[in-house]
Amino acid sequence: MATGRAISDGSRRAWMFDVMVAPALRGLGVGEAVVRLLLDHPGVRGARSVHLGTQDAHTFYARSGFQHRADLPPPPFMSTEMVLTRTG
């Protein structure tokens, strides 16, 4: 089982939340498939930037193009905000 959700302002920004994969399915590409589906959703596809927060999945999201928000101070926060910026 896997899940995830996303919201969008309808034009410029979207946010991804709660991408979760059952332990037995981790490492099989299921999480990456969920992220791809969320990014390709019509409500998210047109967003210029997609934001998320993560505590421990930085490498996972970086594989999909997300980067640490350079304009925020480094953690001691509970989570780190990452962003996928689209051009063109």
From TrEMBL:
PANTHER family documented for this protein: FAMILY N-ACETYLTRANSFERASE, PUTATIVE (AFU_ORTHOLOGUE AFUA_6G03350)-RELATED
Domain N-acetyltransferase: 1-87
Pfam families xrefs: Acetyltransf_1
Database matches in PROSITE patterns: GNAT (PS51186)
InterPro entries per the UniProt record, alphabetical: Acetyltransferase_Butenolide, Acyl_CoA_acyltransferase, GNAT_dom
Descriptive protein name: N-acetyltransferase domain-containing protein
UniProt organism field: Sorangium cellulosum (Polyangium cellulosum)
GO molecular function, one term: acyltransferase activity, transferring groups other than amino-acyl groups
SUPFAM superfamilies hit by this protein: Acyl-CoA N-acyltransferases (Nat)
Lineage: Bacteria, Pseudomonadati, Myxococcota, Polyangia, Polyangiales
Gene3D superfamilies per record: 3.40.630.30
